[in-house]
Design a protein that fits this description.
Layout lengths: L8 E4 L3 H12 L4 E4 L10 E5 L2 E5 L9 H9 L16 E4 L2 E4 L7
Parallel strand pairs: 1-2
Antiparallel strand pairs: 3-4, 5-6
């Protein structure tokens, strides 16, 4: 993008929601710019390599109760990178200072 370029939509934030919005707008033939304050997109999702280890930060689960999220992963060619959590792993949500387990069939 150039300094003088005019776009249809400016998406503020390059996290998952912002990137998804920009992707959907591009599918609808809109010109889009994503404005992100960090040096890279992804929001709180980060993957770091430390030696031979891969460390994922941020959300590490995808709720399968949201079929649109799984469909988007498939559309982006990422479907083969989704895999179920290993049992007995449990995913939790922190709410009001307490951990609440998610039902086992809710996450990939």
């Amino acid at each position: 993008m150039t300094d003088n370029e005019i776009v249809d939509v400016a998406v503020v934030g390059g996290g998952v929601s912002g990137l998804s919005a920009a992707y959907e707008l591009k599918k609808r033939k809109r010109s889009v710019v994503v404005l992100e304050r960090d040096e890279r997109p992804g929001g709180v999702i980060r993957t770091e390599r430390v030696g031979e280890f891969v460390i994922d930060a941020g959300p590490d689960a995808l709720l399968v109760q949201k079929p649109a999220a799984v469909a988007l992963c498939n559309e982006l060619g990422l479907g083969d990178r989704l895999f179920p959590t290993k049992l007995p792993r449990t995913a939790f949500i922190l709410r009001n200072g307490e951990l609440h387990p998610l039902p086992g069939a809710s996450v990939l």
